[in-house]
Structure formats: structure tokens, C-alpha cells
Amino acid sequence: MSTRTILVAVSRDEDDAIRVSETVERLYEADEVEIGLVHCFTENPEGASAAQLSSVRHVSEYLEEASFDVEVHERSGEPASEVLEAAAELDADLVCLGGRRRSAAGKVMFGSTAQAILHDADRPVVLAPGPT
């Protein structure tokens, strides 16, 4: 079986990080996939790197402890388009990200990175479920 590349998009949200980590581990065997972990900064005045964020560290450490090969990437700009661009650059077979359950009004008023990725992706997307 050939190795697949999974792009895992990680926000700053710790709960999303936990759900995404568990979803990847539940769906894939470590020897079947390579993980490209990406965080997109919309603003970064402190000059932090993605690897310094606790949510990114959590996903990376969790998956590495489960024997997955993980490479951390960081982007700057509008999150949905940057995640999709990273997926194209890595030739990812699939994108995995966390999502939140929100009201219809909340989606219309505030938009949704997950919703934009689901709508615009040219490859499969797995959305780790939000809390109920």
C-alpha cells in the first residue's frame, strides 16, 4: 500500500486540537500516512512559529507518540485559502480539520473557515466533530 499524505489544519483551539488528533489516529494507521500539520496565522505581531502554539504542539506530540510521521508547516493570511493552498503544495490526499457546531445565523454573520474549506476543496475533507 502506498503512503498517503494527510494535511491536518490546526487552529489555536485546544479542544479542536484534541478532536483532530483523535480523529486522525482513529481513521489511519501510522505506517499508511504522512502528516503535514499546518497552522495559519492571520496576525502574528510577536513573530511566533506554529510549533510554539500549544494546540500545534499537542497535535504533533500526540500523533508522534502514536508513531505517525509529522511535519509542521505555517502559513500567513486568510486561513481557508491558505489551508487549501498548503494541501495543493503538499499534494495532500485529504484535509482534516476541527469544526464547531454553530447556529445558521452564526454561520451567516461570522463565516466559517471549516465551511469555506468544505465548499472550496478539490480533495476529500474530514471534519472532526465539535462538541455537542
TrEMBL record:
<comment type="similarity">
    <text>Belongs to the universal stress protein A family.</text>
</comment>
<dbReference type="InterPro" id="IPR014729">
    <property type="entry name" value="Rossmann-like_a/b/a_fold"/>
</dbReference>
<protein>
    <submittedName>
        <fullName>Nucleotide-binding universal stress UspA family protein</fullName>
    </submittedName>
</protein>
<feature type="domain" description="UspA">
    <location>
        <begin position="4"/>
        <end position="128"/>
    </location>
</feature>
<dbReference type="Pfam" id="PF00582">
    <property type="entry name" value="Usp"/>
</dbReference>
<dbReference type="InterPro" id="IPR006015">
    <property type="entry name" value="Universal_stress_UspA"/>
</dbReference>
<dbReference type="InterPro" id="IPR006016">
    <property type="entry name" value="UspA"/>
</dbReference>
